[in-house]
Structure formats: C-alpha cells, structure tokens
Design brief:
Layout lengths: L4 H6 L6 E6 L11 E8 L9 E3 L8 E5 L16 E7 L6 E7 L6 E2 L5 E8 L13 E8 L7 E7 L9 E6 L5 E10 L10 E14 L10 E4 L3 E2 L4 E6 L13 E8 L5 E5 L1 E11 L2 E16 L5 E11 L2 E13 L11 E2 L6 E2 L10 E3 L8 H12 L4 E5 L19 H16 L3 E8 L29 H6 L1 H18 L5 E8 L10 H18 L5 E3 L9 H4 L6 E7 L8 H16 L2 E8 L5 H7 L4 H11 L12 H4 L6 H10 L10 E2 L8 E7 L4 E7 L20 E4 L6 E7 L6 E8 L5 E4 L6 E8 L2 E7 L4 E7 L5 E7 L6 E7 L4 E7 L8 E5 L1
Parallel strand pairs: 1-10, 1-20, 15-22, 25-26, 26-27, 27-28, 28-29, 30-31
Antiparallel strand pairs: 2-13, 3-6, 4-5, 5-13, 6-12, 7-12, 8-11, 8-13, 9-10, 9-12, 14-16, 16-20, 17-18, 17-21, 19-20, 21-22, 23-24, 32-33, 33-34, 34-39, 35-38, 36-37, 36-39, 40-41, 41-44, 42-43, 42-45
Helix pairs in contact: 5-6, 8-10
C-alpha cells in the first residue's frame, strides 16, 4: 500500500496482543523450574532519576522515592529498601504517559531467555478511577536495541478497585524474543473505560525479569503424539516430544526436525517441523490479550490427500549430527469430499487460478492486511466476506501485525505470539472458504525515509541491530542474510504451508518504493533465488509472487520465471488516472500477453491517501465498484482487491462483492480460456468484457459515470434506448441478460442475431453501470431414443442457466417435467417416456 505513514499510524502499528493479569497472578512456569532472574530495580536507593518521561501526552508524571517496601522472594530486600511513588495528574481527556528505564550499565537483554516480567504495585485509595471499578491499566513495554523508545508491548496489568489497597504482585509472561536495552511503563487515561478523573497515584517496586527453562526434560526416546484424529483435507497436527534442548529452536543449523509422511499410495511428503507455543486469547476493552497456554514444543503439520493408513517418521539432527528418529502410524478417515480441494495452481492458459481438483478459482475479495482489535476482527470480517461470496484475502506479516522477524532481536529468533495469531487466521480462512495471499515483507522495513515510514533503523538485518547488513541493499546481496531469510521461509513452510487455503507466498509489498537506494538488478536476482528456493523446498507447491506499486516499475522482475504470476497495485484519483474499468482491462491484457503469466490487481482504491479522501471523490462508491468489476472482467485472476477494508466493514459495504458474486457466480467465469471482447467505438458508454467457452461477460459504464465523471452527483441521467455493439462476433443468435451491479438483480433481457460480424444488443434503461451475460440461443435436441422408452435430451445453453423441461402433445398446452441447471455448457437429460402413436414435443423454458 503506497500510503503515507500518517494513515498507518492511526491504527496501532504495534501488536495489540499481550499477556493479561487482572488484579491477580498468572504464572505459566515450565516443568523444569526457575534458573536466573534479572533485577531491573528494587528501589533500594533513590533511582527515580533514571526514569525518563517520553512526553507522549500532556500529563507530566512525578516519580519520587518512598520507604514503602514490597517483599518479594525473587530478589533480596535490603533493610530500608523502598519503592517509587508515581503521581500522574490528568489535565485533559484521552491523555497518556510513557516512562522508560534503561537496563543497568547499558545491559542488553535477549528477552527470549526470560519467561516472566513481574513487579509489585499498590494504588492509593484516592487514585483516579475510570468509573467502571478500575484504577486503569499499566502497560509494560520494552525498548528494543537500536531504538530509543518503547516499540513493543510485553504485557498489560489492569487494576480493580477491590484489589487497590495493599501491595499486589503482578507476574506476566514475556512472549517476545527481542534484544532490549530497557523497560517502559505506559498509562493511557481511557484504557479500561471512561477517562480517569483526577490523579493516578501508585507505588511500584521489584521490577524483575525471571528466566525459566523452556522445555520439559527429556525422559526417553523421541515420540510422536497425534493431537486429534486425522481426516482427509483437514490439518493433521502432531507433537514431537523428548527432543533434546537447543540453544535456538528456530535455527535448523542448531536443531532440525524433518517429518516424512507416507500415504497409503506410497507417495511421500517431507515437511519441516517447527517450534510452537500455544496461547489463549481474550478480548477486553477492544484489545486482544493472548495468554501463554502450556509449554513450548515441537510440532509437525500437513493436510492428508488420501484416506487410509499413513506412517510418519521424524528425523532429528542437532548441530548437523543425527540425533535420532521417531516413527508412528495413523489412519486418515474420510469426512466426505469437500466442495473443492487441493492446493491452488495456475490453470491451463496461464490466465486464471484453479484448485488441485481442477475447479476454476476466479477471485472475489479484498485486502485485510492487519487488525485493529486482534484476531477477533477476522472473526467478523471473514464471516461477512463469506456471506458476500468473497473468497480472497490478502494478509501481511508486518512488524506491527503477524510479523515474526521484524523487530530487533528477532533474527533467527521468532516471536511466537503473532505466529499463533496467524495460525488462527489461516484456520479461520479455511473454515470460511477464503484463500489467503500471505505477504511476507513490506518495503517500509527496508526504507530509510524520515519518520516512522522508514523502518530500516529497527530492522533486525541492520548491522546496527546485530544483523549482517550494513545497508538495505545488503539484505538482497549478503550471503548470510540470504541464508537467514531462507531459514525463516523454512519455518513458515513448516507452520503454514499445510493449508490449501494459503493461495500464495508474496515476498514483498511494493518493494519498488525503495529503488532509490536499492539495486534493482539485485532485487530481481534475489527474487529469482528465493522463489526458486521456495519451489524446491515447499513440499505443498504453493504459488510464489511479489508486488509492485506500479505495473511498469520493474519489467525485469516480471520476467523472472520463478515468479508464477504478476501482482501490482493501482490507485485512481481525479486528474491522475481515470476510467478504472477500461484502464484495468488494457493493462491486464498487455501484461498477460507480454509476460505470458496470470496477472492480479492486488490493491485498488479511488484514492491512496485515506478512506476519507476516497469518499470525498467517490461518495457513492461508483469508482470503487467500477474497479472491482473492471478487474474481474479484465482478464485478470479476479476482482481488483480493494484496500480500505476496515472502513468498508463498519459501513457494511459488502454489497460491492455480493452483487458481483450473485451475477458471475453461476457462470463459467474463470474456467477454460477467455479472451477480451472488442466493442465498437463511439458508443455512449465504456465497455469491457471477456468471452469464454460458453458465456461472455460484459461490464459497461455510462459516459456520464465513467469515474470520476459525475462521481459527486447524487443522480445521473437515464440512458434510454441505447445499444451495445460487439465486433468480430461468431454467426448465430444470442441472448443477453442484464443485471444491476449494485444489487445483482436482473433488469432486462435482449436477443439479437449477428450481422456481418457485429452483434447489436439492445440495453435496458440504466444511469450508471450494468453487467451482462451473453450466450448463444439455447438449443434442446434429442440425442438418443430407443424402443424401451429411454430418451436422452441434450441442452446447450449458458453455464448456470436454470431451465424447466416441458412437454406437450399439441404445442398449446405445456406441462413441466423437471428443472435442470446447466453447469457445464451442455447438459445431458435422461428421461423415460412411453411409446405411443401420438407425437410428443419437448422444450426448455427459462
């Protein structure tokens, strides 16, 4: 998305997933017990001067040393030890503060080595409350190495008035692997309810990180434990126990587990096992909190394609040396064949997608790149998308959402809470029939732009953060960086590759934005290397692509043979780029024919800056609708994928997709070879369309409405008595059905015969746009009859057409016999009839 950071920052760019302890203690300790602690501050002396107000709000905290003391067993309490008294007067509403404390002597902590962060807190009885029984919330943050302000939340403690008198010991799981130089405390005035009124007053003591060994002890040979009964075309998941401890379970050079699945047919599939931590999610105050659930462990996943007896063998290596093997057998049951199954590939003709069972998969969908309220947003979004007939979502693994290696300290040491969140979203997508395009990186991570738009400063590959690259270009050329990135690819293959609803890996979101300081040829070579590596090492065979902000930004990248299809983004605005439908059809045709690959319009909007800016120039969503239909009938793999998902959802604008689904869903859209229709010029509309084996699909926009013409007018003139002329058309008689794109309802029929290669179709009245299905006049004929009374009829008609077969003996009175839905273009109809001397006539009525 080529938008300024001001848009992104209005959403929280930091993961809103923290461990929660509300007025109590939640301890999740590994079985093998505590090892070491790191004491940040016990306030044995007055250290309050080390706490720095980051001035995130207008409130000014006053921190002073007091002799009140909280007793803890995690660190020794010296006689006369004290605590820090925090006083935060709130001069205005919706305010916040952020205070940081550097670790002692410039220490850098690898937070992946710690399981818990704890402190003792005591609120004054007259401390400000939110009116809902709470003193508010204290967020614990960390200061990543190379950054001078907290950018990652570790946990949230929310208070309750009932627990406000006396010391409370708070212990919260640490769920990040960052390298950090300090700790931060944030208080937001309206976190738990209404704005805090007055002054927040509390004492703080014993800020301590506690480390626990992160695995249960090995008590025998490695074992494989099925986590649930296996069913065909559903995720089968296994835990591998008694694996030796490793200094870094994410680095296959340190420890490597490979799972070999052998099917009843004898075919084998080898997938990486991966390091896993479970979580339990809760939603409070519009924020998701993820609690650690159980011990971290090794897991392996795949999707069985056959029913019957399987074997699973897991080979374990430590430091390149064979450690051992675990073997088990399991049975895959049938739960009925799904409506479609198999991993997505390119259909013959290199134009559309299809699933492994050969069914066409034209895409109807949108971007849902990140969340506002955690994975709960996807519960709502995916349910609404499914109801609207959408089948596609583009999701980002960005540093602020779902990213596992986007912050300092995460290089080869992945964050497991966002990894679990992505687990949840992918499984939800499969349940709702939605195919996910997973974008692995964003150009901002390699940008040195000023402000928050430039994230190279915090990138773990940056040598300033301990990475191997002295500049951004090193990410694409440094052999160490390439190896590290391939290790991450191995991890995501093992964790997410099992899913048939993972449509494709997308390397970058709009990497061309960084071409001013990147070597374009190095980027192209990197994509060829990495895409080739994925094709070799992804046993599930997912498609591979990347994206550019402009289709013409890097022709050499599109020519990389290892990239399976092209994906670019296009944003229209008045005076810059006009008439989305015609423009998209022209671009899609050009790039598909030039590179002989399928093409996708991966982002689309009528303004790139914000939803508010889009609504200013497109208040009736005509331009947005024109882009959605324009992408669908341009010859691209599906609709143009709209961007402003989090604004479309509350406005309940899913009709944009449901109307398209209602019209095109019953047709043959996306199956077989399709070519672009040529229309006669000089007509009072813009028209695009594609013609396939049985149907032809048309979308037209009045000249008074071709965006942005008339976009801000509430009503437009009615187009009355107009016609549409299709050129170079095969001889014959054709029917056309016309639909309203705003609701998918039928508005009229027309029929015409080709004359000198031109087909002139009369149009019903319309004012903005219209969609049409054009097909040859249906033909019903007898293909076979015999003396036993068996009669075989053959109906040749448009795909999706519903016809009633009627009979008559006098051509005056007709009786309905059966109803037929033509799903293939030609429908065979078997009937039994009694032979008589009376003629019987048959017809198909729509």
């Amino acid at each position: 998305m080529s938008v300024p950071w001001s848009f992104l920052s209005r959403k929280s760019l930091e993961p809103k997933s923290w461990a929660l302890a509300a007025g109590g203690l939640f301890c999740c300790l590994a079985a093998s017990g505590q090892t070491t602690n790191y004491i940040v501050d016990q306030f044995d002396t007055n250290t309050t001067g080390l706490y720095v107000n980051q001035k995130w709000g207008t409130a000014v905290p006053v921190i002073s040393w007091r002799t009140n003391d909280a007793i803890t067993t995690l660190g020794s309490n010296n006689p006369g030890s004290g605590s820090a008294l925090w006083q935060v007067p709130w001069p205005t509403t919706d305010d916040q503060i952020e205070v940081t404390r550097a670790f002692n002597n410039g220490a850098v902590l690898n937070l992946g080595a710690f399981s818990m962060v704890s402190f003792d807190i005591m609120f004054a009885s007259n401390s400000a409350t939110d009116g809902d029984g709470s003193y508010g919330a204290v967020e614990v943050d960390c200061v990543p190495q190379g950054v001078n302000w907290p950018s990652t939340a570790l946990a949230i403690y929310t208070s309750e008035v009932a627990n406000g008198n006396g010391w409370i010991h708070v212990s919260l799981p640490v769920t990040t692997n960052l390298a950090a130089t300090g700790i931060g405390f944030k208080i937001q005035q309206s976190w738990t309810g209404a704005n805090l009124s007055g002054t927040t007053t509390f004492w703080l003591d014993n800020i301590i990180f506690s480390a626990y060994t992160n695995t249960a002890p090995v008590t025998g040979p490695p074992q494989i434990i099925p986590l649930e009964p296996a069913q065909a075309w559903q995720m089968a998941e296994f835990q591998i126990s008694n694996v030796p401890a490793a200094s870094n379970p994410f680095d296959p050079d340190v420890i490597r587990l490979d799972a070999t699945f052998t099917a009843p047919s004898g075919s084998t599939l080898v997938a990486p096992a991966f390091w896993y931590q479970g979580y339990t999610r809760t939603l409070s105050g519009g924020t998701e909190y993820d609690l650690v659930n159980g011990l971290p462990q090794w897991r392996a996943r795949f999707t069985p394609r056959e029913v019957g007896a399987y074997s699973l063998s897991v080979a374990i290596q430590t430091n390149g040396v064979v450690y051992g093997t675990a073997v088990t057998n399991f049975t895959v049951a049938s739960n009925g064949a799904p409506a479609r199954f198999g991993y997505v590939g390119i259909a013959p003709g290199n134009q559309y997608f299809q699933t492994g069972d050969g069914q066409a998969l034209p895409l109807n969908g949108e971007n849902v790149a990140w969340w506002d309220e955690g994975t709960y947003d996807y519960d709502t979004w995916f349910a609404s998308m499914h109801t609207a007939g959408e089948n596609f979502a583009r999701v980002w693994m960005s540093p602020w959402c779902f990213g596992i290696e986007g912050n300092p300290g995460t290089l080869d040491n992945y964050a497991l809470d966002p990894a679990w969140q992505l687990d949840y979203v992918l499984q939800l997508a499969q349940h709702q029939g939605i195919y996910v395009q997973l974008s692995l990186d964003d150009y901002r991570e390699y940008s040195s732009a000023s402000g928050s738009d430039g994230q190279w400063v915090g990138n773990p590959y940056n040598s300033a953060n301990g990475g191997p690259c002295v500049n951004q270009n090193g990410f694409f050329t440094n052999s160490t960086a390439i190896t590290i990135y391939q290790k991450r690819l191995r991890y995501v293959i093992g964790r997410y590759g099992y899913s048939p609803n993972l449509l494709t890996w997308e390397f970058f979101n709009e990497i061309d934005h960084d071409y001013s300081y990147l070597s374009q040829s190095a980027v192209d070579t990197w994509h060829a290397t990495m895409a080739g590596w994925l094709h070799t090492n992804d046993p599930f065979g997912h498609l591979v692509t990347t994206s550019l902000s402009y289709a013409s930004a890097d022709p050499e990248l599109w020519a990389v043979p290892e990239l399976d299809f092209l994906s670019w983004h296009t944003y229209f605005s008045p005076g810059y780029q006009l008439n989305p439908a015609a423009t998209m059809a022209g671009d899609a045709t050009y790039y598909r024919q030039t590179y002989h690959k399928a093409v996708q319009i991966g982002e689309y909007g009528t303004d790139w800056e914000s939803w508010q800016a889009s609504m200013a120039v497109d208040p009736y969503l005509r331009g947005l609708r024109e882009g959605i239909w324009g992408g669908a009938l341009s010859g691209a793999v599906g609709t143009a994928m709209t961007w402003w998902w989090d604004s479309l959802a509350p406005a309940e604008d899913y009709w944009l997709f449901s109307s398209l689904s209602a019209v095109l869903g019953p047709t043959d859209w996306g199956r077989g070879s399709w070519t672009n229709i040529v229309f006669e010029g000089g007509q009072p509309m813009t028209a695009i369309g594609v013609t396939g084996p049985y149907d032809s699909l048309v979308y037209l926009v009045s000249s008074n409405a071709a965006w942005p013409t008339g976009a801000t007018n509430a009503s437009l003139p009615v187009q009355h008595g107009t016609t549409l002329i299709l050129t170079n058309w095969p001889a014959g008689t054709y029917c056309a059905e016309w639909y309203n794109p705003t609701n998918g309802l039928l508005v009229g029929y027309s029929q015409a015969k080709t004359i000198k290669g031109g087909l002139t179709l009369a149009l019903p009245d319309y004012s903005v746009d219209m969609a049409g299905i054009v097909y040859p006049q249906p033909v019903l004929e007898i293909s076979r009859a015999n003396q036993s009374g068996e009669l075989q009829l053959q109906l040749k008609a448009e795909v999706g057409g519903v016809y009633t077969i009627e009979t008559s003996t006098n051509l005056a009175q007709w009786a309905a016999v059966l109803t037929v839905t033509n799903t293939q273009g030609t429908a065979a109809i078997a009937m039994r009839t009694q032979l008589t001397n009376t003629a019987t006539f048959y017809r198909a009525a729509k």
